Amino acid sequence: MEFNTPEKPQWCPGCGDYGIHTALKQALHEVGAHPKDTVIVSGIGCGSKIPNYVRSYGLEGLHGRVIPTSVGIKIANPELTVIGIGGDGDGFSEGGNHFIHGARENFDIVYIVQDNHIYGLTTGQASPTTPKGMKTKTTPDGNMINEFRPVPMALVAGATFVATAFAGDIMHLKEVIKEAIAHKGFAFIDVYQPCVTWNKLNTYDWYRERVYKTTHDPSDWNQAWEKAWEPYVTDFEKIPLGVIYKKEREIADDFFSPGRKNLVKEPLDPNGIDVSFLAKEFL
Ligand code: SF4
């Protein structure tokens, strides 16, 4: 199905969000998703405008609340493909707590982070993944704090699908998104996304000199752990792309949605009370 909309994205020319937008639409099309069964949930940030540019259901929610909103939608209607998407500030600062517990709980959603290592929408402040030493508006003498490390964090928190990709390699990113959609459980993709306006360090060329496609065994936790740390132990000389870790385990949806009922079609609460009136304004 076609996921294009007449709306034109309003990102800066050259922004990495264009690559992510293209890859996401193509991935949805190629897995056979239908716009009526797809929901894109975002937070606040440049990239969080993306639900406006994909022909599907969408919700641009509160800052840092992509994961709980996505989980709520998935519990209410397990038939939907739910894609949560937002930036590194949204996901790892305001939403940091949700990121850890989202990975731990293992609800069946995809979570894509447009990781440009800066707050772009608010014009260039340091974010959790801003590299140490980088000068930004809020770190004029260079960032003195170690960056947040999303991939190792996702692993220790218990995520069952952890991947990295580069917004400048759309075909590869598309394949990773397709694999994440097919995975049963919390599927996290850290997408390296150049912000051409505010991040003059992590450019397309900077990434192209460092990224490579990993060929390790993603079912082996120890190999995954080694790959997760590789950028940090090599001082960002080597950055692996691809599925870092993948393993099936019980999904939390089954505990929170007993019998996996579609609450939209069967709006009964656990006490047998008809709560359909709650959903009326959305139907
Ligand atoms: S400020 Fe950066 S992240 Fe935001 S649209 Fe422009 S290039 Fe993209």
Give the mean pLDDT: 93
Number of beta-strand segments: 8
**What portion of residues is helical?**
25-40%
CATH architectural category: 3-Layer(aba) Sandwich
Strand order of the largest sheet: 2-1-3-4-6-5-8-7
Unreliable spans are none
What small molecules are bound in this structure?
A: iron/sulfur cluster
Total helix count? 10
- Content-based structural category: alpha/beta
Describe the model:
The chain has helices spanning 17-30, 66-76, 88-94, 96-105, 150-157, 170-182, 204-208, 221-233, 253-256, 276-279, and strands at 38-42, 57-60, 81-87, 110-115, 161-166, 187-192, 211-213, 239-246. It is an alpha/beta fold and 283 residues long. It has an 8-stranded mixed beta sheet with strand order 2-1-3-4-6-5-8-7, sandwiched between helices. Helix 1 (17-30) crosses helix 6, helix 3 packs across helix 4 (96-105) and helix 4 packs across helix 5. The chain is globular. 45% of the residues are buried. Iron/sulfur cluster binds next to loops.
Characteristic terms for this protein:
single chain; Rossmann fold; 10 helices; 8 strands; binds iron/sulfur cluster
Q: Which SSEs are present, and which pair or pack?
A:
Blueprint: H1 17-30, E1 38-42, E2 57-60, H2 66-76, E3 81-87, H3 88-94, H4 96-105, E4 110-115, H5 150-157, E5 161-166, H6 170-182, E6 187-192, H7 204-208, E7 211-213, H8 221-233, E8 239-246, H9 253-256, H10 276-279
Helix pairs in contact: 1-6, 3-4, 4-5
The structure holds iron/sulfur cluster (SF4).
Iron/sulfur cluster is lined by residues 11-12, 15, 17, 46, 116, 120-121, 195-198.
